Amino acid sequence: MKYLVTGAAGFAGRNLAMTLKTLPDAETMECDIGNNSAADLAAFAERAGFVFHLAGVNRPKDPSEFETGNSGFTRSLLDALAKTGRKIPVLMSSSVQAALDNPYGRSKRAAEDEVFAYSAATGSPVYVFRLPNVFGKWSRPSYNSAVATWCHNIARGLPIEVRDPAATITLVHIDDVVSAFLACARGETEPSSPGKFLSVEQAFTRTLGEVSGAIRSFRDARPALSVPDQSDPFLKRLYSTYLSFLPEDGFSSPLAPHCDARGSFTELLRTPDRGQVSVNIAHPGVTKGNHWHHLKHEKFIVVSGEGAIRFRKAGDPSAPVIEYRVSGARPESVDIPPGYTHNIENTGTEDLVTVMWANEPFDPAKPDTWPEKV
Hints:
- The chain has helices at residues 11-20, 38-47, 64-82, 103-122, 146-155, 174-185, 208-221, 233-244, and strands spanning 2-6, 27-31, 50-53, 90-95, 126-131, 133-135, 168-173, 204-207, 258-260, 263-271, 275-282, 287-292, 298-304, 306-313, 322-327, 334-336, 340-346, 352-358, 370-371.
- By secondary structure, the chain is of the alpha/beta class.
- A 6-stranded antiparallel sheet has the order 9-10-11-18-13-16, with no helix packed on it.
- A hairpin with a 3-residue loop joins strand 10 (263-271) and strand 11 (275-282).
């Protein structure tokens, strides 16, 4: 399949084009400013098997550019496609603002009408999406969306403006948009018709205060090694977007190893719903642990060195001791259940490095850690 993407250098176009390039047996043609002349469009049309029409103008210096960049360019593209005599499917990304009476909305509505007229004249299937606010990686601050601006500014300690925190906004993530577009190209979606527009199923309606507050919380959480709840589909997408806006010298967060004569213990990651990940280093001959938990449970994974993990039922010195010989050369995950006192001993000649996961972050006020030798 030969795909043509107009507006390929833009936010949606770049995300789509990069995804298309990963598909087997697919050829992607990219059209943008610089190769969008009538001759260029005619050459693209001769080869295209499916057209993703994502080009458009939304923040022009002159309002007249709305017509030339939206409905005007759409008309030129469709004329080129029609002249091939082939039924070439066209997907157009429009906006929910097409329902509004403003210069941008009117130009997008006119572009929609051009697409439906093309379908009626040629019999080609068309797919018209009226998209709300789109957010995600590769969006431009102060251009594509408030989310892009807020992520960019908050990540750099710059001020943001939220005029009405109680106002709501409907958002869709660019990856969900691309998935919906590709479903059309695969023939899995019914084509559009006048008055029948397509939308992205996974949409989120939040207040401006909720969105901006979440982005601020991401900034504050990173130094504490905290990651927001990834089971929340909106927070998962918003956090990914925020990370894509970090300054190039801001990807790293310093860690704080707790060191003593036995080795070190360093927290790597904290989550509100999936616990804590840490790395433990024990010098040769050192035994760490000798404690148990009421509720907390852990997984130990030795990634370097040789050691022994031992545990027995707490409160019963006569209970049998269970032992696992572990090695970085043979990685395995050992569950440490609640109610068992446990330790880990470095039995080798080099440092023993163990990645440890606990089902809840350590809380000094409620440590749930009770000393008892194995």
